[in-house]
Amino acid sequence: MQNNDLPAPPVSLKVSVRLWLALAGAAFLLGALSMATSSYRAGMWLGLGVWLFLGAVNLRAAFRGARYVLTLVMFPLFIGFGNGLSSGVLAPAEVVVTVLFGVGTGTAGVLMWLPATSHHFRYVRLGR
User: Fold this and answer.
1) How far apart, in whole angstroms, are the C-alpha atoms of residue 33 and residue 42?
2) Neighbour-count burial for 102-117, b at 16+ CB within 10 Å, e otherwise
3) pLDDT tens, residue by residue, 79-120
4) DSSP class of residue 6?
């Protein structure tokens, strides 16, 4: 079976990839905005953006390992954003970005583990 014979990816996978790409874009933007205040923070955001972008590209290519890597990334994001929200020293814009990042990460994470997505990964792996 050639790659041309593979079925189209399910909606759950498409939405998950788009969410991860949007989160990567948001991380790049936050990194660029942080450059004026803290090079450490900017580097952290830019590194996270690269990590999320590469994970999304691999997820779109139906590389199963990307699901595990992105799942591992989710946990520090949740812990970091939870600590950020509980510290009480965030500006209102940072709170909004933090909540959007948390909701987007959780949604993208759930979508990439749905049965339709898992079936697609299995089908692609057997078809290669």
Assistant:
1) 8
2) bebbeebbebbebeeb
3) 777 666 666 666 677 777 778 888 888 899 899 999 999 999
4) S
